[in-house]
Amino acid sequence: MGDAVTIARLREQIRALEGGARVEGHRRLSGLPALDTLLGGLVQPGLVEISGPEGSGGVRFALALVAEETRRRRNVVWVDRARSLYPPAALAAGVDLDRLLIVRPPSSCAEGGRHAGTWAVEQVLRSGCFGLVVATEGLDPLGQPQQEHRFAGSRWRQAAEQGGCTGLFVTRSPSLRRILQADVRLGLEGRTLTVLRDRHGASGGRALLPPWPEDA
Amino acid sequence: MSDRYLAVHFPAFRLERCGYDPRDVAVLIGLERSAMRVLALTPAASELGLHRGMTVSEARSVEPSVEVELWDPAGELTDRSALLRAWSRISDAVQAMGEQDLVLEVSRTARTFGGEEGVVRAARELAASLGHAVGVAITDDPRAAVALARRPGNPIVPVGGMREALAMLPVHALDPPEGLLASLRALGIRTLGELAALDAASVAGRFGADGVRLHRLACGGRPPRDEAEVAWVEDELPGVSTPLAGATTTLQLHFVLPGLLQQLARALSDLGLAAVQLRCTLELDDGTFAGFGVRVGRPTRDVATLEHLVRTRLATVKLEAPVEAWRIEVQEAVPSAGWQPGLTDRTEAREPLPDVLARLIDALGEEAVFSAEPVDAWCPERAWRPVPFALRPPLRRPPPAPDDVVDRQERWDHALTWARPASLLESPVLIEVQGSPPARLRLPTGWLAVETATGPEVLSGSWWQPEAAWDREYWVVRLTGGRTAWIYAAEHHWWLHGWF
To answer: ipTM of this model?
Structure first.
């Protein structure tokens, strides 16, 4: 307990040195019963991470959240750094495609491509035009998770605070996890959603998501 | 009427904006040459022997009680822009010159303040209201005015009185190039008065163009016209340019940007136009050019909006060589008309969505920013296409009547559709599969066992065109560890096509 208090105090000192004002996030209902029961909603402003290997359901979970947002007639942006989002699946998940802006930065092997994705995420987080911004992890020319700039996480956090929105990151690699320092980190295995970390709440909670279409 | 320039010198702006007083002993620090070093300091700190470039520990060893402030570049840039806008109350021709000085062209506006004394009084009052201690000077040349504003003395130099006013100032007061300064000092020339006493021809022969410029200024004349900004109209579209004398950092470009855009906005206003697209061109000293386009979401000539858009693009520019000149041209404009936010816009957004889209398209390309539309095609990768994102979604048609026969058939067909993966790889990856149905598959990371395999879903098409025909047998495979993949068999090979 003493360590947690010390760490929180040190974080606050660092934030003050960086010149950032203290921002208190609040939770807003996401529309997904499992998530709202587990966390009280999505932290806003703030960063949420759903981590897991490809095919573990992270993207589908994000699409479910996007569907709820678009159902409420809100625009959502998906920064598709992995260049793999499949819109027919989004449609099948209930997403209103007219309200989904897809940003597909140049691949990392293109000139300037490596930083274009980082920049695009920051711009849409800061804009204040979107309540939810989803970003997937960039890939290098070998299809492996791209090495991210070490200040990317703090820049995205500041941008989310300025824009008053939630950034949802679908991650695979531990290195991005360390850089991101998300307020909430979720893990997905099968249909079980686990709270791996919640900066302003309790960790370890679990919830069962509804069956996926192929399980029906 | 000759041009007259008011210079305002802010000796402690960088710390005053952080809440410090010039009498406080405080320094601004930032990372420089792998250490935290002093970037700026208050006059009080300077008097105690602190100087730029010192490390923090060196500064504390000289003055243990020195207060240290960490540099916030983004905040400082914002405050500088606000400062420039505030000074447009005195003159609409405002330009930053260096980190601590502003120059305003006041020959046209002095009358409004009751003459140049009134301008000086208004400038001091404005600076005080903004919380800044300043030095001011008015003379015929902007650089001379800056040099005089940095020193105490009579702030108003009469027309033609520059030589006398500059005579006692040291040669470095006009910021000459390092090489020229060293040469002058080597010859024992310490003051501008001593420089002005030299013969012009011998100065040209010994010190070149830079020496000629400095000598002319010391003699009270104006340097060649190429130092001023230029505005023009070509094909009924305006442009502005300014020489930069070898700028090596984008920070120097940021300093001149507000003045350039104010000129451009004035030109647009004169023509009754609002800009839709700008083109910024940097002329480099190696003869090459660097440039970028700026698309404006909503046509505008608002300086703050244009400044924000150009600054964002400027942040991505890397200078390969020093910049000799900067040109900003309007490539597309429309007759100026008011813009009203739509009734359904979310007015709490910090930036209008059209501007965000324009900036993304500018930076990433039109093909990188889109919405998606389903296409009625069997081939999975052709089952959708990108379309421009509509700022206002189309109105929905009313749902069909419950007993509509066509609707019932479509719903039945939809229920038979197989699951589709959330992620579809841009290029399918060749894999190995064992067993039928698939029991093991080998990804680039190694062999994985298949827990369940659902399929086959047979998709084929273009059978009437042998070169374009395709035939695939798709399977949804759940792997150990809870991952679900979409794979297909075609032409005796297996491919990974997507992930659920």
So the answer is: 0.84
